[in-house]
Amino acid sequence: MEKLMDAESLVLAILDALPTHEVHGKKRIQKLAFFAVQTGTASNVRFFLHDFGPFSADVANAIDVLSYVGAVSEKEAQSVRTKRHYKVYRLADSESIEQHLPSAALNALRKLNDYSTIELEIASTIRYFIQKGYSPQAAIQETKELKPTKAATRIIERAKEALAGVDLYERGRTD
Amino acid sequence: MQGLIFMKEEERIRCPVHDLISFKRRRDEDLLLWELIQTPAVQRLRRIKQLGFSEFVYPGATHSRFSHVLGAMQMARRMLDVFQKNDAFEVVDDSIQERSATLAAALLHDVGHGPYSHVFEELCEDMGIEKSHETYTQELIEQSPISDLLRRYGVFDSTRRFFIKEPGYSVFNAVISSQMDCDRMDFLCRDRHHTGIRSAAIDLEWLFDSLRIERVPIDDEGEVREYSFVFAEKGLAAAEEFVIAYMKMYHNVYFHKATRGVQHLVKDMLFELLTNHSQQPELRSTPLIRFFLNKGSLDDYISLDDSSVLTVAHLAADNSWGLASDLSRRFLARQNYKCFEIPGTPTRNIGRNRLDLFRSALRGEEIYFIEDILSHRSYKQHAVTDTDFLKNILIKQDGEIESLGSVSLLLREPAPRVARVYFRSEADRDRARVIFRGLQ
């Protein structure tokens, strides 16, 4: 039987799956972890609707643990263009990764990594509602209610495109 | 407007932190707040301790969430008074309504907290109840009598908005949710007062004196501006002290190792009771067990308070329900879990291999343990393009408005992490220490 990934292994596998082995911001790791599970990674990590989007305390804790033990480096950075401050999480040693994402999740994550964090945030919230049984349209409506500023039309369109690109813009995929 | 409850010309509440908090009958805003205070949902907060198990370390820290929400409301009043000081009433068309809604939100912001809040929420997640205290807050606001009151004063939608949506660009949202919001202003002062801690002081008077309302650029080009709270330059030191106080309180109080130990012990106790003994006749009828048997209904939730946890602890302690009874007796007698703090190294990490070996060795010897690796709270810098930008603490320096994180050298240090492992017995903890030292 396939071994379920715990939160630490999931975070490491996500960083390992990305070409640069790094992710900007904890929120982005949360979203990628959510999508890794949605696209077929067998994991015991649970997501709940917190702070208006899917969130896993297990993943948040895992990031802290992995940073503490040096498996993931955490550095503060600032964008020159936007002056935005963010944390960069980078895999310290890809040789030590024991569990990898299944190919479907790996491919999905690489596609989703082209989207901005806000687009992933909106996409993950839409997907969360679809998974709860909402139709895609109702899920978008619910997301707009929750995130009126962020769920601008352009972002919603990009989020829909992101979900469709990894076959998650429909009911039933992993329900 | 005439309120539905009796209210004297002026009602006063004596607060140990903010002195007199008064309500005048002739002011609709105060009538609403006074009526909200009388609702069962707000009164329930008298029976929930603000700091949960911190009293196991700081015996004075038995103050309630009720006293905190009153204090938060008072802090919100003082923040909103800055509008008057700045003649900034043009900020919104209906500033009177927005003010009332913001004060109501300050008073109601914790109304959905359960007993021993964070332990309880983790337990809910473990038991498959997918509702946070924020969700219960929202549900309580949407149901009678709170919803009726808010509707009667015409502020239902504007109050509810604070709890159901992401914060947008609004000066009023900054009062309820930002890095220096009314919640944080009150709990830092109040928790310091009741714990007796002498460090982590906050100069509230200077902070308020330095506070202004300004139009702040929220895009890179500075073309789009929104009203927000901004500190005059003279407030820089007090603002820094505020953030440092926040970090110190996390280190010394909220994440105190003994408090965390009790939290783990009680969570284990409740989990054991719920998974193995919830059908015991004595337990089935208690509000706490009923809440979980009924899958987290709101009606059951509002009957919960700290006594619900103590009731089941006493029942378990008086019975012979194995581990649950043992943990209950330990909880009541303050026989805490034992903590091993993983020693830091010059690079401040121990290496994942070593941690994994440590975990494997503990499991191999069948030693029960709980890992508790914490990243301490620090100042969070939001970018100018981020919708959370106005959550920053903003300072006006040389005519430019900057986030505190950009101008303060003191706040640039990364927050320290602490790694702890908890054990049920001293023997296990001592054995773990030996194992860890052997893993060089």
Please supply descriptive tags for the structure shown above.
heterodimer; A: 175 residues; alpha+beta; Arc Repressor Mutant, subunit A; 2 domains; three-stranded antiparallel sheet; globular; B: 440 residues; mainly alpha; Hypothetical protein af1432
Structure, briefly:
The complex is a heterodimer of chains A (175) and B (440). Chain A has 175 residues and is α+β, with helices and mostly antiparallel strands.
Describe, in plain words, how this protein is organized in 3D.
The complex is a heterodimer of chains A (175) and B (440). Chain A has 175 residues and is α+β, with helices and mostly antiparallel strands. In chain A, 49% of the residues lie in helices and 13% in strands. Chain A contains 7 helices and 5 strands. Chain A has helices at residues 7-17, 26-38, 57-68, 103-112, 117-131, 136-146, 153-165; strands at residues 22-24, 48-50, 53-55, 72-78, 85-91. In chain A, the strands form 2 sheets. Chain A has a 3-stranded antiparallel sheet. In chain A, helix 5 packs across helix 6 (136-146). With 440 residues, chain B is mainly alpha-helical. Chain B folds into 2 domains: 10-250, Hypothetical protein af1432, CATH 1.10.3210.10; 256-333, no CATH class. Chain B is built from 21 helices and 9 strands. In chain B, helix 1 packs parallel to helix 4 and helix 5 packs parallel to helix 13 (257-276). The interface between A and B is medium-sized, with 30 and 35 residues.
